[in-house]
Amino acid sequence: MSPRGVATPDVRERLFAAAERVVERDGPGALTSRSVTTEAGCAKGLLHTHFAGLDEFVAELCLDRFARTAAQARALTALVGRGTVAGNLTAVALSLFDRGGPAVSGLAMTRPVAAARVREALTGGAPGFATIQEAIAGYLEAERDGGRVADSVDPDTVALAVVGTAHHLLMTGWPGAPDPRPAMTRLVAALVGVRQTREPD
């Protein structure tokens, strides 16, 4: 445990990771300031030193994880023509479920103040589902132009279906529920028509 008065490196990420472990292992009801700091192995007051309270902490945790997935989705542009389309797209979709994603998202929904903070931030332009959807659509359009996705595939519709399904699975997940990732993988495979070369005109 970090002694009082000694700086804790990467404290936000340390607390976020601890919260994810608590929620995934014990459920949303187990999350308290003390359970987070105990799990993180740091001073009990550290969370309140960096956040106004538990609601702000939960909101910031959700927004941080959304931002990470949005950054990964934007990076799809560098993968155009590389790997497989379904594989690249699946990796982004599944990243939403990493490290207790469903449990953490469900936690925010059980805390009205935290949920309001998340909505306000997303409305104000913070990266979230809309950013991820836009990035996926742009990636699929580029792959379609390159001949690796069938002309019949509508990038905007596929992006909406992937993000909408991920959102549904996140909001309806709970600790101990079936792993949502196989369903997400099957959805991507069903939506994306992949071919390696464009057929001759």
Compact summary:
By secondary structure, the chain is mainly α. The chain is built from 10 helices and no strands. The longest helix is centred in the N-terminal third of the chain and has 21 residues, at 54-74.
Strand content: under 5%
Q: Work out the oligomeric state of the chains in this entry.
A: single chain
Q: Tell how many strands the DSSP assignment holds.
A: 0
Q: Indicate the structural class.
A: mainly alpha
Sequence of secondary-structure elements: HHHHHHHHHH
Let me know the largest β-sheet: none
How far the N terminus sits from the C terminus, by CA atoms, comes to 67 Å
Q: Helix count?
A: 10
What do the pLDDT scores average to? 84
Give the low-confidence spans: 1-9, 194-201
Describe the global form: elongated
Cα-atom radius of gyration: 19 Å
Q: Helix fraction? A: 55-70%
